[in-house]
Amino acid sequence: GAVVSQHPSWVICKSGTSVKIECRSLDFQATTMFWYRQFPKQSLMLMATSNEGSKATYEQGVEKDKFLINHASLTLSTLTVTSAHPEDSSFYICSAKEGSASELEQYFGPGTRLTVT
Amino acid sequence: GQNIDQPTEMTATEGAIVQINCTYQTSGFNGLFWYQQHAGEAPTFLSYNVLDGLEEKGRFSSFLSRSKGYSYLLLKELQMKDSASYLCAVMDSNYQLIWGAGTKLIIKP
């Protein structure tokens, strides 16, 4: 149980275009989902936290108008990278929690490799 | 500020034992996690410590000292498949995970 999927697993797009990444909890209801970004040889950096039905909370330094997050249902959250630039190329990982914010365990998706040319 | 330190890279021999250390300074503490991450993949959960002491799980053990802000992950009987990055993460008072940069473990035959 507790499986999180991401789609696509990798994507290449041209500079200036937008890309949407989906994160789904397959066998549980994810009240909270997290979006992370990881550059090569660096740690995971939390971009934003989203709760179903409400606006996402973005971390300092993350542009909310550039990284649009929608958590429309208890099983789906989407991250849209708008007007992508080469510096947005990174590994994007989502994770999900079942239950309250104090729930300890997060279940990670397999990640999406974004390359902007 | 919040800070988690772990060595950037370690090398060990197949069949041996290796200890990966992690020190932390965070606002509040709701437990410390260790994750394994193979290149190009998402992290997978290894262990969770919230009380002082050693937690053993097969070939992997994790230790925590809250007073020292210190943890280590001990890997025994190393196998080639253990080559990966090992991430230390602390859950702060807001139940948010603060991540270390990870330790790349290289296993040599």
List keywords for this structure.
heterodimer; A: 117 residues; mainly beta; seven-stranded mixed β-sheet; four-stranded antiparallel β-sheet; 11 strands; globular; B: 109 residues; six-stranded mixed β-sheet; five-stranded antiparallel β-sheet; 0% helix
What is this structure, in a nutshell?
Helices cover 0% and strands 50% of the residues of chain A. Chain A is mainly beta.
* Mean pLDDT over the residues of chain B: 94
The arrangement of helices and strands of chain A along the chain is EEEEEEEEEEE
Largest sheet of chain A: 7 strands, mixed
The chain-level structural class of chain B is mainly beta
Q: Quick one: overall form of chain B?
A: globular
Strand content of chain B: over 45%
Largest interface (CB < 8 Å): A-B, 20 and 20 residues
Estimate the helix proportion of chain B, in percent. Answer: under 10%
Task: Write down the oligomeric state.
Answer: heterodimer
Radius of gyration of chain A, taken over Cα atoms and rounded to an integer in Å: 13 Å
Order of helices and strands of chain B: EEEEEEEEEEE
C-alpha termini separation of chain B: 40 Å
Would you give an account of this structure?
The complex is a heterodimer of chains A (117) and B (109). In chain A, strands 2, 4, 5, 6, 9, 10 and 11 form a seven-stranded mixed sheet that branches. Chain A has a four-stranded antiparallel sheet with strand order 1-3-8-7, with no helix packed on it. Chain A has strands at 4-7, 10-13, 19-25, 32-38, 45-51, 57-58, 67-73, 76-81, 90-97, 107-108, 112-116. Chain A is globular, with a radius of gyration of 13 Å. Chain A is an all-beta fold. Chain A contains no helices and eleven strands. Chain B has no helices and eleven strands. Chain B is an all-beta fold. Chain B has strands spanning 3-5, 9-13, 18-25, 32-37, 44-49, 53-57, 60-65, 70-75, 84-91, 97-99, 103-108. Classes of the chains: A mainly beta (117), B mainly beta (109). Chain A binds chain B through residues 41-46, 49, 91, 93, 101-106, 108-111, 113, and chain B through 30-31, 40-45, 48, 87, 91, 94-97, 99-102, 104.
